[in-house]
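Handout, page 2. Input:
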Amino acid sequence: MDFDSHTSDVVRAAVGAVNLLTSGYIGGREYSAAPSTDDVREVLYPHRADHTSDISESDIDQLSEYASRLRSVFIAADDGRFDDACEQTNALLKETQAAPVLARHDDEPWHLHFHAIDAGWARSWAASMATALAVVLGNPMCDRLGVCTASACDRVFVDTSRNGTKRFCSTACQNRAKAAAFRARQRAVDASVQGSVRHVRQAHL
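Output:
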């Protein structure tokens, strides 16, 4: 499942920004967000390693504030509170003054951007991300925004699988959850065996 290429790229950027810029838990450990400008470039410009746009600490701080609110959209959608997710997204669209603008740059074909021409760097990205999430929430696949269900992980994801059954932010978390489930089953089997042994011993006393 995919949206148009630009929207899909911005949805992925929103996921990356939320996971990079908001503290919480990742892969079983506590995560304190302290991204460098290189980290931010890698998330937002993955196909443009030579991107030279100046990104200041103030820009990152501003985008971090927006990322916290974008996280709330993912959480609401994951909880099935789609009214809340949509209302929160509408608030972001209004605040960032998201507006459709056709743009052409870096040898790319004409495509839609969703931010005001005079918007600063952080607001431009936030407007585009909010619009991309609005596209997801405004169609039948609105349940594709999720939060990792692995223990000690709260990173977000967008489910682009065909059957829409993704539950984890990464393969690593999926494997970790499977291993934990296996250990839990093994403990249950061991406990059952031990219980049976005790029962047999008591029967022969």
